[in-house]
Amino acid sequence: MISTAAAPAAPAPQGASPAGPAAPDAPAAPAGPRLRLSQYLGYASGDAANNLAFSMSSMFLLLYYTDVVGISASAAGTLFLVVRAWDAFADIYAGRVVDKTMTRWGKFRPFFLFGSLPLLLLSVATFTVPGGLGGTGKLVYAYITYALLGLAYSLVNIPYGSLASAMTQEPQERAKLASFRMVGSAATMIMLAFVVAPQITSSDDLQQSLTLTTLLFVVLGLGLYGVLFRTSKENVVRDVARVSLRQSLGTLKGNKPLLMLCLSALSFLTGMFALQTVQAYYARDVLGDANLFIVLTVVSTVAMFVVAPVIPRLVRMFGKKASYVGAGGLAAVAATGVALTPPSMVWLAIVFFGLYGVGLAAVNMLMFALEADTVEYGEWRSGVRTEGTTYAVFSFTRKLGQAVGGAAAAYGLGLVGYVAGAEQQTQATADGIRYIAGFVPAVFIAIGVAIMVAYPLTEKVFGTMVGEVRARRAERVAAAGAPADETAREV
Fold this sequence. Notes:
The chain is mostly helical.
C-alpha cells in the first residue's frame, strides 16, 4: 500500500536526480491555464457523440438481433461475448497507436477529426442487417459489422478518454471533466430513450426506422465531434512525444492503483451492462409496458445531471476513493431493490432505478477521474507519460465487463425461457428477467466496491507525486542549461 512517507523513495527517471521533498498536504499547482467552460462543454459533446454509437448498441442491439433480425438469444449472447472481448483487445491496439502519434493538432485530437465518420457509418451498418440473408449469413454479417464498429469506436474513444489527463493535472478540474463527460453521455441516453424506444412498439417497419435513425445520428455526431476538436487543448507537459512499446510497458509495471481500478471497473461494468442489456425486456415483460423503458432510462440517467455538479464538492470533502465506495454501495442496494420489487409496484421500481442511477453515475464519473490519476503514478515511477496505453488498459477491462455483462444477460434470457416475439412471457420467465436485472448488478457492484476499499492512491499521495515529477523535470532542464519554460508542450 502506498503511503506519503514511501512516495519520495520511488525511483527517479533515468538521467534525473530524485526530487526534493514535496509538501505532502498541499495540492499540486495546476499545470497550464485553467480550463474554460467552453472546454468542459466541448468535452461533454465528445461523449455525447461517442454514445450515439456506444449506447445505441448497448441499449438496443440485443433486442434488434433477437426481435428484428431473428438471431436466437443464445447465439446473440455468444456474439456479444466474442465481439466485445475483441473490442477489449482493440482498445490495447488503439492505445499503442495513440502513444506513437504526434501531429500538429496534438496527440489525441486528430482521431476525432478522421475517425468519427467511419465510426458513425459503421453504427448504421450494424443496425442494418440485410433481409435477404439466411440465418448463417445474418449471423456472419452481425459478427463482422459489430466487430468493425468496436475497432472504430476504440480508435476514437481511447484518444477521447486519454485527453482528460492531458488537458489538466488539477484534481478538481479532472473531476469536473468527468462530470461533464457523464452529462454528455446522459443527454444522449435520454435522447435515445425518447427517439428509439417508441419505435420498438409503434413502428410498422422497425428495420427502416432504425436505419434512418442511425443515418440521422451520423450528421449529429459529426457536429458534436467537431465541437470537441475545436475546444479541446492538450496542456500537460510531456518529456517523450512518441512512446515506445518498452516505455509503455514500463509505466504499467507495478502500477498497483491502475490494476485495482481496472479490477473494480471490470466488476462494476459487468453488473451495469447486465442491467442495461435487459432493461427493455424488464420494462416490457416484467412491468408490462414497453413505454416504461423511457421512464426507467430517464430516471436513471437524469441522475447524472443531478450528481454531476456535486462530484467536485464530494471530492473536496471526502476524496475520490471514499466517494466511489459510498456511491457504489448505494448502487448495489438499489439493484437489490429492483430484484425484490413486485411487478405490481411500478412506482417502487422507478424509485430504485433512480437511486441506482445516482450511484452508478457517481461511480462512473469518479472512475474516469481516478484513471487520469494513474497516468501520473506511471510517470512518477518511470518518467514517461503514456496516457494512451494507460487508458487503453483501463478501457480494456471496461470492455471485458461490457462483454461479460451483455453475454450474461443474453444467456440468462435463454436460461429463463425467453421466447422472442411472444405476446406474453411465462411468469417464471418474467421473474427470471427481474432477477437478472437486479441481483446480477448487485453482486458484481458489491465486488467492485470491496476492491476499492484498499485503493492506495489518495489525494495526498497524488499531490506529492505530481510535485516530485515537476521537480525532476525542473532539475533536468536546469542541468541542460535551458529555461524551464522551453520544455515542450503539446499543441
